[in-house]
User: Which sequence fits this backbone?
């Protein structure tokens, strides 16, 4: 969302700059066709922005958001239709209602410039805050129950692991490293929109899971219980197990080296489906990556199925649940 807001802010900034330029050239001193047309352009921008952001919000609620794509074709189509409708309505309305020119500037244009400046400043500031500092996130599934419930809204601390340089995976000024037990929001580790995992394409989507394996750790799941570096993970009060029956191990004939390769290439879920839920590994977490799992261990599509999460894909740490009011607080 932050990149979408940034480019909308830039669009409004361009309109504001051109409005000042045309005003200085004296293009808005009369109720000319140009003044009405420029007023229609502003209406088109506002209508386009409103339609696109509404479409994005609805897609977010349905879980269809793809963070690697600025706008989908459907979102742009809605925006263009709304822009055309808004521009036509304002242009022909202006031809019927003749405004009174004051202070040498068309009143509609003066008001448009004030709104452009307000929207430009607010949207650009919001995009910077969301990109660098804090972002809102909605829990899309039950994989983190009981820590988070479906529909919970929370803030994600995006600067704790470093400030990301826009359109790169480079981070600066890391305040702390990712730790075992951190609940992280990350972009799903896939570069192919055609790749299917967990029942569909997860390309570009944001996930939330808990870090259970650090770089270099040997991680294994035996009969549903987590083992790290040969030892049981110990007390995990945040976990939840819903099934009384455990799936048997289904990968005994695969060499350890091949198993590691299949896991790193996100193949285990496709090869063994649910049979790796309760008996998984052992695998070694690659350097620069993490193994993540959902707290709802029997209902989580996580690293057991689709491999490690590179550090560059991690966007931030779950910070504070702000909705619903009954669940406000800091997650553990």
Assistant:
């Amino acid at each position: 969302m932050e990149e979408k807001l940034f480019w909308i802010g830039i669009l409004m900034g361009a309109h504001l700059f051109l409005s000042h330029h045309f005003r200085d050239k004296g293009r808005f001193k009369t109720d000319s066709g140009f003044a009405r047309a420029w007023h229609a352009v502003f209406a088109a921008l506002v209508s386009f922005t409103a339609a696109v952001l509404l479409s994005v919000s609805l897609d977010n609620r349905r879980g269809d958001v793809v963070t690697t794509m600025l706008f989908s074709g459907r979102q742009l189509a809605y925006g263009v239709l709304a822009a055309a409708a808004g521009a036509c309505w304002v242009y022909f309305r202006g031809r019927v209602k003749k405004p009174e020119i004051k202070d040498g500037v068309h009143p509609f244009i003066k008001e448009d410039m004030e709104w452009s400046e307000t929207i430009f400043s607010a949207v650009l500031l919001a995009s910077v805050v969301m990109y660098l500092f804090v972002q809102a996130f909605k829990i899309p599934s039950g994989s983190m129950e009981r820590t988070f419930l479906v529909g919970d809204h929370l803030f994600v601390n995006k600067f704790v692991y470093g400030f990301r340089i826009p359109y790169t995976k480079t981070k600066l000024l890391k305040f702390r490293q990712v730790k075992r037990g951190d609940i992280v929001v990350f972009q799903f580790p896939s570069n192919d929109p055609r790749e299917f995992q967990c029942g569909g394409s997860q390309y570009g989507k944001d996930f939330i899971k808990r870090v259970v394996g650090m770089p270099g750790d040997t991680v294994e799941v035996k009969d549903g219980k987590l083992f790290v570096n040969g030892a049981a993970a110990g007390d995990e009060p945040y976990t939840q197990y819903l099934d009384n029956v455990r799936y048997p191990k289904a990968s005994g004939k695969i060499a350890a080296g091949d198993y590691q390769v299949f896991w790193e290439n996100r193949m285990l879920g496709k090869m063994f489906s649910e049979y790796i839920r309760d008996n998984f590994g052992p695998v070694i977490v690659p350097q620069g990556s993490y193994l993540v799992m959902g707290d709802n261990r029997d209902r989580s599509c996580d690293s057991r199925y689709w491999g490690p999460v590179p550090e560059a894909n991690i966007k931030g740490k779950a910070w504070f649940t702000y909705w619903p009011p009954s669940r406000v607080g800091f997650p553990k």
